[in-house]
Amino acid sequence: METMKKESKQPVISVIMPAYQAKQYIGQAIASVQNQTCEQAWELLVIDDCSTDGTMEAVRAYAADPRIRYVCQRKNRGVAAARNLGIRLARGAYVAFLDADDWWEEDKLRLQMERMARTEAVLVCTGRELMHPDGTPQGRAIGVPERITYEMLLRTNVIPCGSVLLRTDVAREFWFTCDKYHEDYILWLRILKKYGAAAGVDVPALKCRLSAGGKSRNKWKSAIMQYGSYRYLGYGRIQAFYYMVFYTLHGVWKYFGSSGGRQK
């Protein structure tokens, strides 16, 4: 593992950005973190999962910012392992996750910290706006409920990983597991089962770039992973099928039920 370390003020929020072959987009993702309006100090941990396309050089363009820490793994280990490494290295009381091909609106962390202060939730997420691969809007935003319970989450995953702000101690209690299924969904369910409802900020503060081969674009693959997630969590075949019905209906409504605007 190779690192580029710098001295910076003790952060309150550690932003974890896994990156693989991310040269094309990572600059926009990094800049969106730098532009955050929150008062709390932050650090950005870029976890390079053994890229070969010049991702390191793209990150070096931001080397003057001491809040940015770059870590390059010597072996490709997958996104769950990359996020877990970021959680281990985090110095902040909170961790946030952002993929290297997505970006945030500038008030994203500020709105979440305000919501965190007003609630007992250990996890706060936001809505998202879907973007074309070139970064232009698709004209569709997907909102989130202000309160997300375990039972609600079982029916479908309304928590986008790139929108999450989470207490670091809670992240270190559960970790990301099982890349073959929806590793983030499994983590959110485990957290809500123990700590109660998550909070949502119904603003599309995450700009989510949909790539041609991404999980969210391959509906059949995503459905298989969703079913596998239920089974991984210990649900029997009948229970898993029961929740898959809701997952399927919600997916149809979310992506095809409206031509645009905010959805939940």
Mean pLDDT: 89
Number of helices: 9
Spatial extent as radius of gyration = 18 Å
Helix content: 25-40%
Question: How can the largest sheet be summarized?
Answer: 12 strands, mixed
- What overall geometry do the principal axes of the alpha carbons give? globular
Q: Would you tell me the structural class of the helices and strands?
A: alpha/beta
Total number of beta strands: 12
- In terms of DSSP E residues, the strand content is 15-25%
The ordered string of helix (H) and strand (E) elements is EEHEHEHEEHEEEHEHHEHHE
Low-confidence stretches: 258-264
Q: What is the straight-line distance between the termini?
A: 41 Å
Secondary-structure map:
Layout: E1 2-4, E2 13-19, H1 26-34, E3 42-48, H2 55-60, E4 68-72, H3 79-89, E5 94-97, E6 103-104, H4 108-118, E7 123-131, E8 137-142, E9 147-148, H5 150-155, E10 165-167, H6 168-174, H7 183-195, E11 198-209, H8 219-232, H9 237-256, E12 261-263
Parallel strand pairs: 2-3, 2-5, 3-4, 7-11, 8-12
Antiparallel strand pairs: 1-4, 5-10, 6-11, 7-8, 7-10, 9-11
Structure description:
The chain is of the alpha/beta class. It is 37% helix and 24% strand. It contains nine helices and twelve strands. Strands 1, 2, 3, 4, 5, 6, 7, 8, 9, 10, 11 and 12 form a twelve-stranded mixed beta sheet that branches. α2 links the parallel β3 and β4. α8 runs antiparallel to α9. It is globular. The protein starts with a strand and ends with a strand. The relative contact order is 0.15.
